[in-house]
Structures
1.
Amino acid sequence: MRVTVAMIAQLVQGDIEGDPQVEIQGPAPIEAGTPGTISFLADVKYEAFAYQTGSSALLVDRTFSPQQPIKATLIRVDNVRMAVAALLKQFDQSKTGTGTISKQAFVDPSAVIGANVSIGHFSVIDNGAEIGEGTIIHDQVTIGPGARIGKNSVLFPGVRVYKNCQIGDDCMIHSNAVIGSDGFGFAPKADGSYDKVPQLGNVILGNHVEIGANCVIDRATMGSTVIEDGAKLDNLIQIAHNVRIGAHTVIAAQAGIAGSTHIGSHCQIGGQVGIVGHIQIAEGTKIQAQSGVAGAIVEKDQAVYGSPAIPYGNYVRSYAVFKNLPEMEKRLRKLEKEVKEKRS
Amino acid sequence: MRVTVAMIAQLVQGDIEGDPQVEIQGPAPIEAGTPGTISFLADVKYEAFAYQTGSSALLVDRTFSPQQPIKATLIRVDNVRMAVAALLKQFDQSKTGTGTISKQAFVDPSAVIGANVSIGHFSVIDNGAEIGEGTIIHDQVTIGPGARIGKNSVLFPGVRVYKNCQIGDDCMIHSNAVIGSDGFGFAPKADGSYDKVPQLGNVILGNHVEIGANCVIDRATMGSTVIEDGAKLDNLIQIAHNVRIGAHTVIAAQAGIAGSTHIGSHCQIGGQVGIVGHIQIAEGTKIQAQSGVAGAIVEKDQAVYGSPAIPYGNYVRSYAVFKNLPEMEKRLRKLEKEVKEKRS
Amino acid sequence: MRVTVAMIAQLVQGDIEGDPQVEIQGPAPIEAGTPGTISFLADVKYEAFAYQTGSSALLVDRTFSPQQPIKATLIRVDNVRMAVAALLKQFDQSKTGTGTISKQAFVDPSAVIGANVSIGHFSVIDNGAEIGEGTIIHDQVTIGPGARIGKNSVLFPGVRVYKNCQIGDDCMIHSNAVIGSDGFGFAPKADGSYDKVPQLGNVILGNHVEIGANCVIDRATMGSTVIEDGAKLDNLIQIAHNVRIGAHTVIAAQAGIAGSTHIGSHCQIGGQVGIVGHIQIAEGTKIQAQSGVAGAIVEKDQAVYGSPAIPYGNYVRSYAVFKNLPEMEKRLRKLEKEVKEKRS
């Protein structure tokens, strides 16, 4: 479909200054805009780019008054950031499937495939699996026996869903993420070796969950590892067996959560955070990147930092002193000397 | 096969209180039990669940005396945890293969495939590779040229085994783990760029090794990167070139071990631990999660903590003071003032 | 091809002591050498191995004078390490493709495939994708719609390249790495849930870039996430959306770089390092393993350490005091007591 500046202006309820018939292929950052793209100016500190950009159109604030001539057609809006969000959605094709099943996929005859499902090349839908209406299974994905995928979800190439796991509606799972691998459970034997504890549970993902590339979510020993509705996981995250992640909690890349820990809803967990097993984290907790949480967090909406983690402000203040520890040690030594001299 | 309470009682040498003919589909956590499942009560603090559970059967201690009526059939045993372990094994199907080779797999004519091997759809067994008797290669796995996999091992979907790597008997490798990628070796050139050092060695895994999902074990520059018998690796772990991991060492998720380091046997390495290259770690070493080990550990059975890591107790004591550093700095300042005032 | 000691001696400009006609299959570490292999002695502390090695040939320094008889044929060279590098290249086959396209691959008719390209089994080359001359696409790789791969690059099994991403010439990407997954962008809504911000940009890799196994490089929201020429990334690394990595920067395993951060050229980033978003890191910066960089680094060629990171030497000195904090606290307490006693 041909998209013009006029159509975009209508979408974002903006007013046009310039040629409304310019055709737009997609958005671009203002400093890298080329003809056929639309950019935006949301922050005055980037104003200089507005005069140099090669973009054909520019979303700007209604109050913006240019100090130099601008070649691009302007679209004036009330809120630039909201207009950009609407624009990005307009050009988004991440949920565009073929609606067909590749002849080079393996779909077990016992699998139940909903209407308008896309299944890519060399994907495997194993016996008893169910794929809900409108879901897009990209190439080379594995859906294990008895696994259930909801409606309008997207699984990118190389995603592995082990047997009996369940994924909700409107989820997005990025490439090479693994859902349902065995929990890490071993019983020590008298001779110092280990006996594997079979992992018979599954993983359940709610609706509107996003899982980043190369994440791993282990199945429960018994019962379920659960990621509740609307939780968003960045890449390379480890979720151990029997963990529960509350609704609308966001977790940044490379964080890891040990077994049986329950995280409340609306938490924000920073990158490379580690959380020990068998604890509860209250809803609304904010954990600073690289922190290590070693015990339960009972009070809601706290921010913590450090390894082991302590209240955020305390860590910052302690670390400020830490940076001057050699100096502080010298002051102590000097004082010791003074006191000693006085004594003698 | 139909499994009844009577059969389970016999398996765990337990005594039945209730209907021995109830059919059991599998185990479930006591708080989430449904009809047809069996649960257990190993810790009195969960006793309340015993009176509410929907499970059809319950493993309890011989000495357990209920304070309220329990609907579930009880199986009384000497050691609940051991009975649960036996029960989980009974229902475990992770080593159940088809014993067939998918017509949609690629198996090079020169590959040697043992008896009763399962090979899934879209898997590749390259030239000269060998797969031992009873091994299960799931879907979309890659076994590179000349690679050798032992007997009764299980490789889950998306595992990549590069050329000439060797995997022992009774191993389990979870999805998307990579065995034998190039070690990270580059020689700096005069112009500031880097020259790749070819990585010609391989990876050797002993017997009874478990490798978690999305782990990476790099091949040696020359010789072998070695994971000895019975070692267990959780998910997302990095093992660099020429590393050696001792027998029955367990490593938690997201730990990383740099090149040429040798870890002794029976070590316990916590999650997100980092260990520098070219050092030795004595057997029985315990490394606390998120620690960074920067030098050799010579003495056996030590516990270390911190980044860089120091003896465990020392870190804990130093961190206890760290948390009060601002307070300590104030005390020092006050003392300086007092001494100064006295002087004047 | 038969390779003899004589041929190797010519390659490395060495002088032979012993049988020049011995056939060599490949290199091996001196302590693990077997007949048919060639080893090297670059460091006198390993001299004892020279008298025991089973290798057929040994690269040694011109000045080396053995204290015991050596069975292996010696090749004397000016610089052992450089000779080893030349030798490794001689035996390297990592860039040896079949030059053919598997009949079990899916190549869209609209894809443009250069001369002498290898495409492995069950790989997918999607519509509009381009693969440059001499590039090797191993088995089970995904090249998304409109993606462009340069010349003489190697993509190992399971690599995923999302749509419209670009990879340069002479790149190497290891198994299960993901190039172009969605950046982690979500806008909070009034009800506490999140709205996905579509990620419409791409990833651009320069020439001579190496990406380790299971790395993830997210696509930009708009514009491009860029890895410049000659950058080398180890395994399991996270590169967020709109990041730029400068030329010839090396990054060790499990490091993570948050969104929109720009790293200069010739930096060295240690393992498990975390870097916050939206900052600039000057060229030549060295970041110690496990550090957390929380702010811009403006001055070139600095070394930093700690979480949050401070100048390297400062961290080392502060940590030295940290290790003795309990002792220091005791000294302070003692002094307080003394001063108090004097006062009274």
2.
Amino acid sequence: MGNQAKTAITPTRNEDYPEWYQQVIKASDLAERSPVRGCMVIKPWGYALWENIMRSMDAMFKTTGVQNAYFPLFIPLNFLEKEAEHVEGFAKECAVVSHHRLEKGPDGGLVPAGQLTEPLIVRPTSETIIGDSFAKWVSSYRDLPLLINQWANVVRWEMRTRLFLRTSEFLWQEGHTAHATQAEAIERTHMMLDVYAQMAEQYLAMPVIKGRKTPTERFPGAVDTLCIEAMMQDRKALQAGTSHFLGQNFARASQIKFQNAAEKEEFAWTTSWGSSTRLIGGVIMTHGDDDGIILPPRVASSQIVLLPIIRKDKDRDAVMAYTESLARELRAQHFHHQPVRVQIDTRDIGGARGWDWIKKGIPLRVEIGPRDMANNAVFVGRRDKGHRDKTAMARDEFVAGIASLLDEIQQNLFDRAKAFQQQHTTQIDDRQTFIDYFTPANTDKPEIHGGFALAHWCGKDACEAEVKNDLTVTIRCIPLDSPDEPGVCVYCGQPSAKRVVYAKAY
Amino acid sequence: MGNQAKTAITPTRNEDYPEWYQQVIKASDLAERSPVRGCMVIKPWGYALWENIMRSMDAMFKTTGVQNAYFPLFIPLNFLEKEAEHVEGFAKECAVVSHHRLEKGPDGGLVPAGQLTEPLIVRPTSETIIGDSFAKWVSSYRDLPLLINQWANVVRWEMRTRLFLRTSEFLWQEGHTAHATQAEAIERTHMMLDVYAQMAEQYLAMPVIKGRKTPTERFPGAVDTLCIEAMMQDRKALQAGTSHFLGQNFARASQIKFQNAAEKEEFAWTTSWGSSTRLIGGVIMTHGDDDGIILPPRVASSQIVLLPIIRKDKDRDAVMAYTESLARELRAQHFHHQPVRVQIDTRDIGGARGWDWIKKGIPLRVEIGPRDMANNAVFVGRRDKGHRDKTAMARDEFVAGIASLLDEIQQNLFDRAKAFQQQHTTQIDDRQTFIDYFTPANTDKPEIHGGFALAHWCGKDACEAEVKNDLTVTIRCIPLDSPDEPGVCVYCGQPSAKRVVYAKAY
């Protein structure tokens, strides 16, 4: 593949976006399908990315006073049933545990035995089981607020799955808080949305729109659902995090009560908020190109790979010594409060080695050969530039400037994604234009068209449903910063007070 | 409770050790039982301890070349059946998922629906599902070794549970490696046992004996199981980590094959090793006293609590400013490569505040009142000393010496536990002495007696079973450093080549 004119990933994004997505994950070794229906295996390169995302987000949570805890994987069926909308929202995708052992069956094989008197549900989310603890932990207003987060696996049975975007089991964090007042709970809902937006923009270099879901798109049982929505390169939206104001619904269901300062009993006000390994799908589709994925430096599994070039055996020791001392110097540098993450690849596989790292999306590739050594130099390839675009740099300058170089790449990725999002976001005020915008012009490539339409909506569920049915387009959110602006609904012509974001979505 | 003569925990260890264990967990707010049979809720103070254990252990794993990944929660029944001993070992404690949705039943309530064609088992351990991935990832000796770890929850259905020690769901790490040669796999098995021993001794201040399990106590499917065994304060043994050499058993079951350098196909040699939230039970029972738990500084959820003492309102601002600046100075110090973990408790609840932190086991309590301020001093209580034993220290000296003070506490806890273990470890060569050693002298307090008996064993399963049946004593391990020493079996009188460790156990 050394000097190929072709791209490393077949097909390209333009040729077949969904297939590109599968191939790019395979080529980068992030994850793979497992033999268990709908469940994925997250491979080391993908898991290291998730570890970096977790570490960054966890630190942000803790700064806001949140503490981690851990609650049971299983939820008794009657707990789930306590909140009517909630159970209805999840009933169709629940994994049910019915037995607690295996026994030899009549034909000699093992069969389930020890049937449970009440089935247990593998948690699809934990409001009801955590609510049960909160009810025990709270008795006075002095016990509030409770600010709890859990890093966990959850299961929502899916028939059609896509790695990272939609899998039956996924990894996530779910935050759950309880407050003495409505105002404080609403403030927390917004605060955590801001954390998600920061995480997306500052760490994943993924620009997002902060908004509110329409009533039909709310979390089952919530009073209000806030979300961040990002634009992928096929111009579809990806919901990348949600923060729910639950009012007193779950407090009532779980009996989370407290005595207020006036010694009167009240239900607490609760929130919940979650983000998941889906963010990795967002990173892939925001930054990836036809040569593979591109990892934002702040969360990259590794940031720099050193590629010693040894053409003659007599050079080996000197090149390796130079490489290892360079690795040590780089690891002693810090980027965004963490030691720089460096690895050395000594595999003797020719040009495939450099291509491997391009496909894996590592921010910097550094080639080191005898000539570079002689010049006290390094030969640097940036993943955010073309694969042929490599630059010789003085070694000392490279080491001393590594943090600002990584910052520059991080910023460049964000700027590119932001420009792309702006380019494909349009105000639309006319029904036919709206329909055309969301209708593929080229039926050979139905994937890439449209974008975000900022258009008026009448506020009616029925109209929203019609758009969804006719065009497979949904209201992604009502942007929080959307100004009041009288107009008429782009689809039905009824009066509207605000524009919303319409898009096709994952 | 200010000047109580009594202890903070009732009953004391001597009065009723098992009940003391439950009460000390409650008083320290580490965890509690959940409404889901056998599952626990790990509360923030307990989870922070687990986070510190994870961080320390994870760093040690990575130093040995191990990478993290994540595999499915569910295992198809036929996977588990691939290794006969393995499935037999776990069949009695498997949670079985049988359905994938809920549906309105005849009486209006929800009932399981969408029955699975093949039941899924919630992982009790992941050898078989990870083996399936390994089989895909390995084709040549160049792909080896594979060194993988996963942090995960597992489920082993238990009828009688005890917080942290035996719960149906628990959190753990499980390492899985595959190698080209038997020697390399055996070396890895020992290497990871050494990591566990280091973790236990250097971080948890819990002295352990490294040894080998007898054949009947091996992990189901393993060729050899190594373990670390610690002594609790009731002199029972706690198995605190195991490392298994699996030979080619699981490679054969999962078809993990590779072409060797001579291009011949071979089965890989695999290992697996695990440790869990059980370690927290070990910390409680190794160090806890009649006033609560005592956390070793290196893993303590928090290391220092500052307790501002404000008797008059006019002092409030000055005392708080002094406290907050002290917190900042302490947090700028490092202990064992981490910023010192400090919190401030401003609750106005009198003497109960100090006792709260004693029960929670925080290594250092620092009282700060107007007089301390005037002297530029702090008033320090060490949790490894009695609750009345507090010392005034110059503030600057305290801050500058914080790392060595924490080190001293860490070392003191280890030394105490080591002395206790040695005090209750005895060579026994006579059958009646052996029986007496393991028979409670005082039937009112049957819990505390015996200890570790270093005694000869004939090597026969039947004799081992007899001891277990007669005395509820098991062979904890054959110590790795046990010298060859001809003798006769303490129980049956047959010839023996080595002493083993006998004890009652958790």
